[in-house]
Write a structure and sequence with these properties.
The structure holds three protein chains of three kinds. Chain A is about 35% helix and about 20% strand. By secondary structure, chain A is an alpha/beta fold. Chain A has a domain of about 130 residues: Thiolase/Chalcone synthase (Peroxisomal Thiolase, Chain A, domain 1). In chain A, the strands form two sheets. Chain A has a nine-stranded mixed beta sheet. In chain A, helix 3 crosses helix 15 and helix 7 packs across helix 12. The two termini of chain A are about 20 Å apart. The mean pLDDT of chain A is about 90. Chain B is mainly β. In chain B, strands 6-5-4-7-8 form a five-stranded antiparallel beta sheet, with no helix packed on it. In chain B, strands 2-1-3 form a three-stranded antiparallel beta sheet, covered by helices on one side. In chain B, a hairpin with a 6-residue loop joins strand 1 and strand 2. The longest helix of chain B is centred in the first third of the chain and has 14 residues. The radius of gyration of chain B is 20 Å and the shape is extended. The model of chain B has no long low-confidence stretch (mean pLDDT about 90). By secondary structure, chain C is of the alpha/beta class. Chain C has 13 helices and eleven strands. In chain C, the strands form two sheets. Chain C has a nine-stranded mixed beta sheet with strand order 3-2-4-7-1-8-11-10-9. In chain C, strands 5-6 form a two-stranded antiparallel sheet. In chain C, strand 5 and strand 6 form a beta hairpin. The longest helix of chain C has 16 residues. Chain C is globular, with a radius of gyration of 19 Å. The mean pLDDT of chain C is about 95. The chains are: A alpha/beta, B mainly beta, C alpha/beta. The interface between A and C is large, with 62 and 66 residues.
Chain lengths: ~400, ~150, ~400
């Protein structure tokens, strides 16, 4: 059995509302072409290919059945996955590589938010809700436009209440990530913001402000995975997948503990155990986490063990997660800064963390980074996964 | 375990609207049909296939495809099927027919309505031609249907 | 090489219009049944793999998320697989990978579909499966989609409507002995031929009914499997194939021949060291949403020569008491077709090998069985071969 799996090719498109007219299939092709070319391989070299998507985001049932052409998957043992973030494609790809020696596997995801009409998102939110007890509560509201924020705000309020997290703590996350993104050429509308800018941005649903919410966008991401014996041949700087873990909580919010993200805690524990990491706060050099909302970054940092439970406020206050800090979090800008192609953003976290370990993160580069953790979430945000990467 | 109570049904629907981008390849394809009643394909520089519907990459060779070529609006009936059910599930007296037409000069073709013919008049392999709509909006329905060549 | 993987239990329940239960409740019943059959507590399950084809049937994005509790997956790793109809077998393949890769020792696959909730009818949803640029505007439906393919298939190989009808008679009849079946029926060839034509050559009785249902299968690594059961059934081969979505312009654009299914079968048989499946396979549970699909699939799976499916049914080879029984459970035609829960084909293959298929048990020794799933725009196939040592 192969011992390890490496990332040997990375392809990402710029995030944002692409006005170049590319369809989702074409965007996915562009990312895949880049990833294959980085690994110096042809379509013939691919053994298997995995992709993910969400039907209602795409407006198509079985929404990724037309994607396999774009990821080089024609007449390959393809397993398409759906209803998960792209980070799950890594989990499946990892298992595929580990099940048989000598394999090269492509994992990819794309999101084309610009294919949805602007008024579509509340309905998407509704469709992710538990249908019997939760969705019915909201279907008769005269306006459900703010529903998504309202639901997230309940979680934020609970988190703040339990651990003394303040509005300023949350705003500081947004400031950090928006500013980090100005260094990232793939970022969607990156701009420098101040704490005042964030605190004065539109209040969507207390405590969520406009600049603390990651805006949906288009984007595609493809990674090429290879088993250990091929990795050195395919890449001068393979990045090793040292641990993976994923976990789901109930989608009934009243039954789950909203102040903390237990599902990420469990996923992280599994990934760290595989990677032999005992003290993540000391051993992890940087993290790319799923900051869909600014307060989520603090919750996930706690769940990932980068700080203690309830210490998210101190963590951001002390600058630990800044690019110059001891555990930079989202040096790429995260979802808030780089962009939020739903269902692809988690895979992009892994891509960004891998670029860091290669030393190819450009102006976002964390000097000397050797071990990184990346994390993603699936809709409806009570499920997610963790990947631990290392340079050696 | 048995259900002891009267089943309760909850009503609801979810409507989501989309504006799917036709893509770089699709935009050119539909524009040519709308403006010039021309069916275009793209030619793979490696395997030489003329791809219809067009794409900007060949899924077999996995290379960029940039050369556009016009293909015929006539071709061969590859297969067809008729339905006596409307899209809404209602029973129809007259069937509607869908076929796959491989277009001359292309290594592919289109799936579309077959018109001006009854099912018993159709044969696999017969010659077909596209009938364009007078008013065209830049989508696949700018072709009204394919009919047996006159 | 990968770790050996065994199937140690399956969970069954009735396929029917399950109007009272939620997805969560439906899933719970099969998951619980599978755990009980293996005498395992929920805690023994390391990860759950869901299979469900279409979210729109229940209007719930990530439809499996509502069934996490029912599958025993709360605060466990869960993953959802979807390859359209081939979800039925590609989900257990993903379950196999969980164990073969060394990540988990015990994994439960839960496949379900609840098609009775959408209005006016589940068929309404199928149009949303099609490509939004070239196919959906035409209003294509499943009946025509299949007619396009069936017409080419019959013409290419000279097989007939009558032979299709015989498959229908066989599978509906077999389902009479299947306690979980929705549509066991004693039919004659005339009944089938005279049933309303949906889209030539497909008649009403050539099609499988939309329905609700779920299935569960528990996989275990070799050492753990031997603790759970004295008689583990091994996964011997897996295979998958996916062809281009551009079905009008593939390198081989001939819909009569399922290149992708031949390709998937070849992988599975190579892995299982099977050279002549028509001799070495004892029973087959193949994906038969339409009668002609069983015919195409027995050919692609090498159970008869290419084009020989007509002869196979004519000569009674695929009858339950035949030399190579195909769908002795009744298949999708007789048992019902809740898409993802087509994993029932694997469950029945397992039950046949175990000798636990009850009235559906074939009257001969069964050591090796094959099953498959089909889906997409004439696109995907997933194949699994299971058996005893």
């Amino acid at each position: 059995m192969p011992k390890r799996v490496a990332i040997v090719g990375i392809g990402q498109t710029k995030c944002g509302f692409n006005d170049d007219g590319f369809s989702y299939r074409e965007l996915l092709y562009l990312a895949t072409k880049q990833a294959l070319s980085e690994a110096g391989i042809q379509r013939e070299d691919i053994d298997s290919a995995f992709t993910t998507s969400y039907d209602f985001l795409e407006g198509r049932s079985l929404s990724n059945q037309y994607s396999l052409d774009s990821i080089g998957g024609v007449m390959k043992p393809c397993d398409l996955r759906l209803g998960e973030d792209g980070i799950y494609a890594i989990f499946a790809g990892y298992m595929e590589v580990m099940s048989k020696p000598g394999q090269i596997v492509v994992v990819a995801s794309v999101q084309k938010a610009s294919d949805r009409r602007p008024d579509a998102d509340p309905a998407i939110t509704l469709s992710t809700l538990e249908p019997v007890y939760v969705r019915q509560v909201f279907t008769n509201l005269p306006a459900i436009a703010g529903l998504e924020y309202c639901l997230a705000a309940m979680e934020a309020r609970r988190y703040m209440h339990c651990y003394g997290i303040t509005e300023a703590h949350i705003a500081k996350v947004a400031v950090k990530n928006h500013n980090n993104a100005t260094r990232n050429p793939l970022a969607q509308n990156a701009r420098k913001v101040t704490l005042d800018d964030v605190l004065n941005s539109e209040m969507l649903s207390w405590p969520l402000r406009s600049l603390e919410v990651a805006k949906p966008g288009d984007g595609a991401c493809t990674l090429v995975l290879a088993s250990e014996e091929l990795a050195a041949e395919l890449s001068d700087s393979p990045v090793w997948i040292r641990g993976i873990g994923w976990c789901s909580d109930t989608c009934y919010p009243a039954a789950s503990e909203l102040a903390k993200t237990k599902f990420i805690h469990i996923a992280a524990r599994q990934a760290y155990a595989m990677a032999g990491i005992r003290h993540p706060a000391r051993e992890i050099d940087l993290a790319e986490v799923y900051d869909n909302y600014a307060f989520n970054e603090l919750q996930y940092c706690e769940a990932l063990g980068l700080c203690g439970e309830g210490e998210g406020g101190r963590f951001i206050d002390e600058g630990i997660s800044e690019i110059g800090g001891s555990i930079p979090v989202n040096p790429s800008g995260g979802l808030l800064g780089q962009g939020n192609p739903l269902g692809t953003a988690g895979l992009m976290r892994v891509a960004q963390a891998a670029l860091q370990l290669r030393g190819e993160a450009g102006d976002c580069q964390i000097a000397g980074a050797e071990v990184a953790v990346a994390q993603g979430c699936g809709l409806p945000y009570r499920a997610g996964g963790v990947v631990v990467l290392s340079k050696w | 375990m048995e259900n002891q109570s009267q089943p309760i049904k909850l009503q609801g629907s979810i409507e989501i609207s989309y504006e799917w981008s036709a893509g770089v390849a699709g935009s050119r394809f539909f524009q040519e049909i709308r403006d010039n009643k021309r069916i275009m394909g793209t030619k793979c520089p490696k395997c030489g296939r003329v791809l219809v519907p067009p794409r900007i990459f060949c899924e077999e060779c996995f290379v960029d495809v940039e050369e556009w070529v016009e293909v015929s609006s006539k071709g061969e009936l590859v297969t067809f099927g008729e339905s006596y059910l409307g899209t809404d599930g209602s029973k129809l007296k007259e069937p509607w027919i869908v076929g796959i037409i491989r277009l001359d000069g292309a290594d592919g073709g289109l799936i579309h309505y077959i018109g001006e013919a009854r099912p018993e008049e159709l044969k696999i392999g017969m010659r077909m031609e596209a009938v364009f709509n007078e008013k065209r909006n830049g989508n696949i329905l700018d072709i009204k249907h394919f009919r047996p060549s006159k | 090489m990968a770790r050996r993987v065994a199937i140690v239990s399956v969970g069954m329940d009735k396929f029917a219009s399950r109007k009272v239960e939620t997805v969560d409740e439906m899933v719970y019943r099969v998951a619980k049944n599978a755990l009980d059959n293996a005498k395992l507590p929920r805690e023994a399950i390391g990860a759950v793999v869901f299979g469900c084809a279409v979210d729109a049937f229940t209007a719930t994005q990530a439809a499996e998320k509502v069934a996490i509790g029912g599958a025993g997956g709360r605060l466990r790793p869960t993953m959802r697989n979807c390859t359209s109809g081939s979800t039925a077998i590609s989900t257990p393949i993903l379950g196999y990978l969980h164990v073969a890769s060394g990540l988990y020792d015990v994994v439960m696959c839960v496949c379900f579909e609840k098609m009775s909730e959408c209005r006016p009818h589940a068929q309404h949803v199928f149009n949303t499966v099609y490509d939004e640029y070239f196919v959906r505007p035409i209003g294509l439906n499943v009946a025509i989609q299949c007619s396009l393919e069936a017409r080419m298939y019959l013409r290419r190989y000279g097989n007939t409507e009558l032979q299709m009808a015989k498959v229908s008679v066989k599978n509906h009849g077999n389902a009479l002995d299947n306690p979980y079946a929705q549509l066991g029926k004693k039919l004659t060839v005339e009944d089938v031929m005279n049933s309303p034509c949906i889209s030539w050559p497909v008649k009403l009785l050539d099609t499988s009914p939309t329905t609700d249902g779920a299935r569960a299968v528990i996989f275990a690594s070799e050492d753990v499997a031997r603790d759970i059961t004295d008689d583990p059934i091994w996964v011997k081969g897996i295979g998958r194939g996916g062809d281009s979505c551009w079905f009008t312009g593939r390198r081989n654009s001939d819909l009569a021949r399922l290149d992708y299914a031949y390709y998937a079968a070849k992988q599975a048989y190579e892995m299982a060291n099977i050279e002549d499946p028509s001799q070495e396979i004892d029973v087959a549970e193949v994906y038969d949403p339409f009668t002609y699909k069983e015919m195409q699939h027995v050919e692609a799976l090498g159970l008869c020569p290419e084009g020989g499916a007509g002869r196979m049914i004519d000569e009674g080879i695929s009858l339950r008491e035949g030399k190579l029984p195909v769908n002795p459970s009744g298949g999708l035609l007789g048992e019902g077709n809740p898409i993802g829960a087509g994993m029932s084909r694997l469950c029945w293959a397992y039950l046949q090998i175990k000798g636990q298929a009850g009235g559906c048990q074939v009257p001969k020794d069964v050591n090796t069985a094959v099953c498959n799933g089909w889906g997409g725009m004439y696109q995907y196939n997933a194949v699994m071969v299971i058996g005893r040592d």
